[in-house]
UniProtKB/TrEMBL annotation:
This is Putative glutamate--cysteine ligase 2. InterPro entries: GCL_type2/YbdK_subfam, GCS2, Gln_synth/guanido_kin_cat_dom, YbdK. PANTHER family: GLUTAMATE--CYSTEINE LIGASE 2-RELATED. It catalyses: L-cysteine + L-glutamate + ATP = gamma-L-glutamyl-L-cysteine + ADP + phosphate + H(+). Gene3D superfamilies: 3.30.590.20. Belongs to the glutamate--cysteine ligase type 2 family. YbdK subfamily.
Length: 378
């Protein structure tokens, strides 16, 4: 059986190369230039200096690598013309949310008016993966099969250890900010699409939400496409990390499409344990112990990841198998959040002032996002 088609959405912060903070000048000129070169593949997000690249329908990771690599290089070149760079990470290490300008469009004005400081604080960047689902498949039942694995994907992608210019103590502070919103995080459990549609009708009939677009769960059935959309992952400065997350999620979907549906997926305790594991991934990334939802026993992240990889390996196309080794390497050596903290702590231990230590972190993220060679920090 052929692997499912998929799509990737990556978010970036346009960053001033002098201040190393989110850009305030040249933003509209950059937006116009990027639209001329990338067309509808580039979109604006909630904040003026926040941009998203949207891939076409993809069939393999080589295609995705070329698509996103070309887009990153193009955006980095255009940004440099305005003394800026592009930075992909769940949060911007140096930025303070109060100074970031919101997008002035009707859609975003309504969001900021409704959600107030919660929206204003959401200076965040994510990685979203869509995987195609056959029309005869109940996407809610499929979503239930995938939800317990979400903390694994968060741990692998965590890239937001800083907030407001200082270490937050979390590996994904982005997810902590997301928790301020209603209808985010791990989705509520619905038995099937009929039960989900009833919930949706009640929520819209009572004016709680305008439509399903206001459900921002970590995974959700897409409103626009016949896909399941992964939303838990932080934006990845490393393109290879982003491709790893995309490939793993696609294989997880394909596994779930072909495997039986045991009763434990519908046990209320499974969702409770998934919420707990999400906290542990948000707090510690890939360190500490996690509660494997089926056995209900604690495992190190590496061991839990290995059980998942054993399940999905047959659904990873042969030429994409390097993502399995990449995931194991991330779990063993640490991902972006740990690397950022190493750079910061090394600089501080060497007597570097806090601001300059954060400059080193930002410069590394800018180089990674632009696909430039980066010196590894042990």
């Amino acid at each position: 059986m052929a692997a499912s088609t998929f799509g990737i959405e990556e978010e970036y912060f346009l960053t001033d190369l002098n201040s190393r903070r989110v850009a305030q000048n040249g933003v509209e000129a950059f937006a116009e230039a990027s639209r001329r070169e990338l067309g509808e593949r580039i979109t604006r997000e909630m904040f003026a200096a926040q941009f998203e690249v949207v891939s076409p329908v993809l069939h393999d990771l080589d295609e995705a690598r070329k698509c996103l690599g070309d887009a990153r290089r193009t955006l980095a070149r255009l940004a440099a013309e305005h003394d800026c760079g592009i930075l992909a990470a769940g949060t911007h290490p140096l930025e303070q949310w109060r100074r970031v300008q919101a997008m002035d469009t009707a859609r975003y004005r309504a969001i900021f008016d409704d959600y107030r400081i919660v929206a204003s604080r959401s200076v965040l960047a994510g990685l979203h993966i869509h995987v195609g689902v056959p029309k005869e498949v109940d996407r809610i039942r499929l979503m239930n099969r995938l939800t317990p694995w979400l903390p694994l994907l968060l741990g692998l992608s965590a890239s937001s250890p800083f907030w407001d210019g200082r270490p937050s103590g979390l590996m994904s502070y982005r997810q902590a900010v997301c928790d301020e919103w209603p209808r985010m995080g791990i989705p509520d459990h619905f038995h099937d699409t009929a039960e989900y549609q009833h919930y949706l009708k009640v929520m819209t009939d009572t004016g709680c939400i305008a439509s399903a677009i206001n459900l921002w769960w970590n995974i959700r059935p897409s409103l626009r496409y016949p896909t399941l959309e992964l939303r838990i992952a932080d934006a990845c400065p490393s393109l290879e990390d982003a491709l790893c997350i995309a490939g793993l999620f696609r294989a997880m979907v394909d596994h779930a499409l072909n495997a039986p549906h045991p009763a434990w997926f519908d046990d209320p305790l499974t969702r409770i344990l998934t919420v707990e594991n999400r906290w542990r991934a948000k707090r510690r990334g890939m360190r500490g112990l996690f509660v494997e939802p089926h056995s209900q026993r604690t495992l190190p992240f590496t061991a839990w990841l290995e059980t998942a990889l054993q399940c999905i390996t047959e659904h990873v196309p042969a030429k994409d198998r390097p993502i399995l080794a990449h995931a194991r390497k991330l779990a063993r050596l640490g991902g972006s959040a740990e690397a950022q903290l190493r750079i910061y702590r090394r600089a501080r231990c060497n007597g570097v002032e806090q601001r300059d230590a954060l400059y080193e972190v930002v410069d590394t993220l800018l180089a990674q996002t632009a696909l430039q060679e980066v010196r590894q920090i042990a």
